[in-house]
Amino acid sequence: MFDIIIKNANIIDGSGREGFAADIGISEGRIAKIGRIEKTDGQIIDAKGLIASPGFVDCHSHSDYYLIINPLAESKIRQGVTTEIGGNCGYSAAPLSGEALEERKNAYKKAYNLEHGWQDAKGYFSRLERQGTSVNFALLAGHNTIRASVIGGSSRDATDNEMARMKEMINQAMKEGAIGISTGLAYGPACFAKRDELIELCKEARKANGIFTVHMRSEGKGLLEAIEESIFIAKQAEIPLQISHLKTYGEENWGKLDSAFELIEKARAEGLDATCDRYPYTAANTGLHSVLPNWVLDGGIKKELERLKDKAVREKIRAELQQAKTDIWDKIMISEVITEKNKIYEGKGISEAAGIAKKEPLEFVFDLLVEDEIAVDAIFFKMSEENLKRIFKKPYVMFGSDSGARADYGPLGRGRSHPRTFGTFPRVLGRYVRNEKILDLPNAIKKMTSEPCKKFNIKNRGLIKEGYFADIVIFNPETISDTATYEDPHKYPMGIECVIVNGKTTVEKDKHLGTKAGNVIRF
């Protein structure tokens, strides 16, 4: 007896080998048989002319809170994502305490009316399991969140007692199922952490066979130094390294890609398990306040706001940015704000928005950040398409959206999110596989499925293989494509015919069935 039988499929199984024709029998959430199946019991899915592959694994997700706000994970599941790795760039839903917990509670209550009822990973996982979710979800313990919990937003070094507390939080998170540690060294408060702190914390994660993912200190001017630092930390801690969203940011840095490859490949040749991820777009998406010098972030959001309200501090920032010859306002688009008053600026470039406000661009940025209490997201158009293609071709690069699961309705439909939120995986398969032939289909599927599962120690997923969990996406290779744009980002992709999670049909013919069959993946 089978619960679901997928007939006449062209199976690309996630291993990298060429596709083959077979039926797939699913029973009790697992793949029970691959081959010719004569039985007609259970649900029959005719996949003639379609590809059946493992469900895609988004190895760089920020869905931690979004799955609580809307557990249907619409923008991910409808592009074929069945598993997400959350807690990236140093920011995780758990563990957290102290100042960080209070700030997070207030922020999500204000923005989404979310009641924050957990502190540790166990509590977060329990909340997720109680309400259910449409995707499988694994969590990295965020260094930024942990440091903010123990030290606050201060730029100082941790005391011995504070280091012990941070280690304890990582140990507890790993015991409760976290799969490793992430850091965001371009952001506060991790930007104030020195290498020794990171090495010691990574060693704690390594004790439980965890992984280290890093949003590096620089992806532009200091790119090569940042790669060297990340490799050094991983080597000293003897922990596998994942470099988040590898890029060359800013045209003046596009020529550094070969040197970046050399550093990574040298480390791999020397035995370090070093890999990377990347999204298929040439614009970044992060907080607008990332344009400010790191010293402005010292002390956390309250102190940052105080500084931005001070005219003398504004002039100091202005002088520093001018000295760095920062001329970026035409390449930054405001994507999301909090206050209703400033909604008119969403989707507009800084220069255009400043013109509407009748202000000079930097003064407009200062005022906007103050009015929205720093919670302003922006899209930065600063990367090279040619470099993107070269990055994709590397065997140690896999795919991640660098986004949370959103929707085209409700609280997660607000603003102008980056199109990667709705289009990452279909864009790879449509634009870069079918149209531009940057990768062949079996290799691209491998990068989306078995490779991230192998890297993040996710067992029994990522392959179409008997005994594995039945996470399967069925798509049309001739039509699969993204439809989301920077101007109109909340649009679902084309060509996804069916998505199955743990043996339950979740998406069928562009319709989410409301199924919440996802599991929390504990390490």
Rg value:
22 Å
Give the number of helices: 17
Mean pLDDT: 96
**Could you list the spans in which at least 5 consecutive residues all have pLDDT below 50?**
none
Structural class: alpha/beta
Outline type: globular
Secondary structure tally: strands: 21
> Tell me, what is the CATH class of the largest domain?
Alpha Beta
Per DSSP, what share of the residues sits in E-state strands of 2 or more residues?
15-25%
Per CATH, what is the topology of the largest domain? TIM Barrel
- Spell out the CATH superfamily of the largest domain: Metal-dependent hydrolases
State the domain count: 2
Report on this structure:
The radius of gyration is 22 Å and the shape is globular. Helix 3 packs across helix 5 and helix 7 crosses helix 8. The model has no long low-confidence stretch (mean pLDDT 96). The protein has helices at 66-69, 74-77, 98-112, 121-131, 143-151, 160-175, 195-207, 223-237, 257-269, 301-309, 311-323, 350-357, 361-371, 385-393, 420-435, 441-448, 450-455; strands at residues 4-11, 20-27, 30-35, 43-46, 51-54, 56-58, 81-86, 136-139, 141-142, 180-184, 211-215, 241-243, 274-278, 283-287, 332-336, 377-381, 397-399, 472-475, 496-501, 504-508, 511-512. The strands form four sheets. Strands 1, 2, 3, 4, 5, 18, 19, 20 and 21 form a nine-stranded mixed sheet that branches. With 523 residues, it is of the alpha/beta class. The chain has 17 helices and 21 strands.
